[in-house]
Every structure is written in C-alpha cells, then in structure tokens.
User: What shape does this take?
Amino acid sequence: MIRRKAGSASEGSVQGTIGAHLRALRKQRRMTLEQLSEATGISVSSLSRIENTQLGLTIEKVETLARALGVTAEAFVSRAPPGGAAAASAPAALRFTVDRASERQAARYRELSIEYLFERCAARSLDCMHLIVQAVSIWESEFVRHPGEKIIYVIAGAALVYCEKRPPLVLETGDSLYMDAPAWHTVVGVNGQPAEILVTVLPGPDSRGRPFETQTFTPESWAALQAT
Assistant: This one.
C-alpha cells in the first residue's frame, strides 16, 4: 500500500506529494471532486483526504484513479508535473509536440468519453479534447460553465447544443461553434446516435481562481434561467 501518515497537512507539506499530483491532474481535466468520485466509486471525502495526504492509497485505488484521469498508473505515482518534465520550465525553442492516439486513454464520465490531446501545462494556453457524446436527454446531461473561450467542431454525427440565453442549436458534421464559455451550456448527440466532436478551450487571463462549474437543469429551471 502507498500510505501517508494521517493528520492535517500544511500547504508546504502537501506540495510535491501524490495527493498534490492527484489534485493537479483532476484540475487539469476540469473535474470536480464529485465528478471524480462518480467516475471512480471513491467517496468525495476520501478523495479530499487523499489530496491532502491524510489518507493512503492502495494499488487498486491508484489504478482506478489513473484510469479515470486518463493516465497510466506509472505516470500517476511518478508525480511528474502534468505535461512532462519539459512543461516545468519555459521552452528554449519553438514548441512542436506530437500527441499519439495510441498513447491516449479515454476518461468516461456520464454521457461523455473524453480524450485530452496534450496534457495541460503552464507554458501552453490552449486545451484540446476529443469527445464522444451520447444521445441522452438534455435534462440527463451535465451543463458546464467556465472562464475563457471555446470552439466546438463536429467530426461525425450531429450535436444538440443548449447555451444560456440562446435558442437550442443543432450542429451537423463539419459545423463549428465559437462561444464565450462562462455561459451555462451542454452538448449531446441527436437522433439516437453519438456525436464525435473536437473541443478547444482558451481559458484566458482571468481564469485563475475562477471555478469550472457543473449543474443539471430541469425544463422549468432552464426556462427560468432564460427568462432572467
């Protein structure tokens, strides 16, 4: 087992630990503790204690967390900075990075299957994700809002988009959408078929300290939001 002594941990003692690495990976993937709990079956309180080095990890939990976060178990316990060692310092030359499809692992959450293209690092502003979105009811999907700008491109199928203060919109294969991401929004497949989409996000200079939020809506609560 991978264990840490229980008890409160100061911020300085948490830095550089597996718990700190777990928190960094989770935030990189824009996941809340609740989302990671649902994806892994590990309670929110246990995840919080792991991140604060107050609870040890078994090999089984390491493997479960690694799968949910889309990394290998070896990369998870290595505690290397997200994006690799090269991401820890500013690049000395123009950046040129290849992200191999064979090396990516999809993370599954609710109606989504997500592959993160290029692990996020401080030296790069853009986030890019390849998603398969199932054709569930809008009211079963999870709406999100977060700082920055977003582009959605439909690779295959058709996608139904709900966005705050906008009428519902269907994007077909080859269509794309640019939007400011602080509005509540969600995307699902239509006609009983999943949609394959590419999402690019530019968090922007005001993103630090601002949350990535999630929420479900009912037809009534959505209508009330639209009316405000």
Remarks:
- Helices lie at 11-14, 18-28, 33-40, 44-51, 59-69, 73-78, 219-227.
- Residues 11-85 form a domain with the 434 Repressor (Amino-terminal Domain) fold (CATH 1.10.260.40).
- The radius of gyration is 19 Å.
- The longest strand covers residues 149-156.
